[in-house]
TrEMBL record:
Name recorded for this polypeptide: CobQ/CobB/MinD/ParA nucleotide binding domain protein
Domain of life: Bacteria
InterPro entries assigned: AAA_dom (IPR025669), DNA_Partitioning_ATPase (IPR050678), P-loop_NTPase (IPR027417)
Pfam families the record matches: AAA_31
SUPFAM superfamilies: P-loop containing nucleoside triphosphate hydrolases
Organism ancestry: Bacteria, Bacillati, Actinomycetota, Actinomycetes, Mycobacteriales
Residue intervals of the AAA domain: 3-190
Length: 282
């Protein structure tokens, strides 16, 4: 059974993309899961993190990015779309991670996102119609959404079974969690489906910070939040450096031995357990 999970937060800079990439690599490298990453964020950070800027440029020039789906739907490009040609196989720069694939993003999504509604009825279905046939190849599909609830994000949510909210444990980063939950519930009701709120992933956590500790306590007490994943991802230079397109060799070397690797591995383990329990209806 394939579980499709969107990662979303309306606040930028919360470690959403880094967490998405690390989760994918842990799911594959430590737990043998087949993972597809979909980079829906026009900033293309996840794409460049996984395949490097040079390779991304080649693919973008050749029309082998997510933008092509929307260009064909808008009539800007002749179809049909070769979905298999969009998927980049075994993209992790870590030689120890063998089963992470990627559908790259494109800067062209910036302009396209303002025109998606021109497609008319079904404009939120572009990704779902094109990609659902290939999802059975994977155990998990992780969609890195842009920090908004525009038409592109709605396409990602329409494909998703569930979502997580990565956040720094401070007031500014957590402020938008409630509005995100409410809007996603409303979208799901309109579509006649269910998009499960799997919970909050705490990132860039500083144990010495009273603000961080108190915010985590507040999140755990908040009955509107389904759960806070118990593994708190620490703020660490090693995790920030992991965004570079470099073959670190092993997951431990990439993410660090001072608790970072363990925290991310525990997150992946909890993620598997949570999806098995919460998404058994899918």
């Amino acid at each position: 059974m394939t579980h499709v999970v969107a990662t979303i937060n309306l606040k930028g800079g919360v470690g959403k993309t880094t967490t998405t990439a690390a989760l994918a690599e842990m799911l594959s490298g430590e737990f043998g899961q087949r993972v597809l990453l979909i980079d829906l964020d026009p900033q293309t950070n996840l794409t460049i993190m996984m395949i490097g800027e040079a390779r991304w440029g080649e693919l973008d020039s050749a029309g082998r990015t997510l933008a092509t789906l929307f260009e064909v739907a808008l009539g800007d490009r002749v179809g049909p779309v070769d979905v298999d040609g969009l998927i980049q196989r075994q993209v992790s720069p870590l030689t120890s991670v063998a089963s992470v694939d990627l559908i790259p993003s494109s800067l062209r999504l910036i302009g396209l996102q303002d025109r998606v509604t021109d497609i008319g009825a079904g404009h939120t279905e572009v990704m779902a119609r094109a990609l659902r046939p290939v999802l059975d190849e994977y155990d998990y599909v992780l969609i890195d959404c842009p920090p908004n609830l525009g038409a592109m994000t709605l396409n990602g949510l329409r494909l998703a079974d569930a979502y997580i909210v990565p956040t720094i444990p401070d007031v500014m980063s957590t402020y938008g969690i409630g509005p995100v939950q409410e809007r996603i519930r409303r979208f799901a009701d309109e579509w006649g489906t269910d998009i499960v709120d799997l919970g909050v992933v705490v990132t860039k956590y500083r144990k010495a910070s009273a603000v961080h500790r108190n915010t985590v306590d507040d999140l755990n007490r908040n009955k509107q939040i389904s759960m806070v994943f118990p593994s708190l991802i620490p703020e660490a230079n090693q995790i920030a450096a992991a965004a570079e397109f470099v073959d670190f060799g092993t997951l431990r070397r990439k993410y660090g031995n001072d608790g970072q690797f363990t925290a991310l591995r525990d997150l992946a383990q909890d993620f598997i357990a949570t999806t098995k329990v919460r998404l058994t209806w899918a």
